[in-house]
Amino acid sequence: MRITVLTYVEGKERSTEYDPVVMQVVRALRRQGHQVAILGVHADVKRVLAGLQRRRPDLVFNLVEMFAENMFGDIAMEGLLDLLGLKYTGCGPGESYLTQDKALSKKLLAFHGILYPRFAVFARDADFETGGNLRMPLFVKPLRTDASIGIRRNSLVTDMKSLMRRVATIHDELNDSALAEEYIEGREFYVGVLGNYDPIALPPIELDFSGLPEGMPHVLDSKAKWDENSAEYKGTKAVLADLPDELRAKLQKVSVDAYRALRVRDYGRVDLRLTDTGDIYVLEVNASCYLARDSEFAMAAAAAGIPYPALIQRIVDLATDRYRRGSGLRKSAETGKKPSENGKKGGEAGKKSSDDGKKSAEAAKKTAED
Q1: What is the pTM of this model?
Q2: Which architecture, in CATH terms, is 118-183?
Q3: 56-59 — which CB contacts under 8 Å span 24+ positions?
């Protein structure tokens, strides 16, 4: 199969300084016998179009997370792939928007009876929105950005003054609405999910916060995720969760339910908190989550007996099967026909169809009488 790995590149348009996950996916695909090309994109739509038309892929392995300086440009890129009629892995623009807008996600979870932290949205250009009466402490983060962007130690607030400071910072620095949700004390888990029509949950991965300095909130902020020299980074780690079978099954069921509720395609990861009383809260649903070899998703797959090359092939198979079953944009029955001028030709065609239908009905009647 001809597969093009589509990825975002920073800075120069023709840069080959890819995120490490790109070459890991490429090598895994080549090990499976695929003919693989890489297309790095930054901000030139014409170059994207030319690159895709030149490569003519049977499938696009979509690793784009933004476009130009737009952190939500991945949604537009998925729409472009749809308009080009190309098959690709992961979510479409609609599903991606559902998972990126955390308030909208929570409303869908509520409809399906899935627990989530109560919340409030502080938008720059809209009215205040609340999802229940809130109690401090609150965890304040950007409404739509991911990868712990905008999440800091002071994101956990205990009074209105601190809350409004964090809201203003998110508005000013990230140009995003602020989401304030009740902080759920408890153990944190990541559960990967694979599939479309019959998704399966992978073994849960637990965030171990035991290495954090005393008094530091148990959250994975931007330092814990990206600053290798920080106490937050050194004090947190992801480990395969050691759980009783019943609890593991509950975490996996909630994860699959949330995955389905948000219409995630092919693969994703659900972030959960488990309280001392046994309640399971969905914090976020991450569609098309990070796929590096050392990611929590790959770690969970390995624990389920799916080595990395097989995991990447599984995603290819899921996307291919989804399109084979007819998932994608609907096509008009009149595809390929030139539109009629002022509807005249269309009207005549409609009249002809009507006349043909009348003749067919008369013929059927005659046959019945004979």
Answers
A1: 0.85
A2: 2-Layer Sandwich (3.30)
A3: 56/2, 57/2, 57/3, 57/4, 57/86, 58/1, 58/2, 58/3, 58/87, 59/1, 59/2, 59/3, 59/4, 59/87, 59/88, 59/89, 59/316, 59/319, 59/320
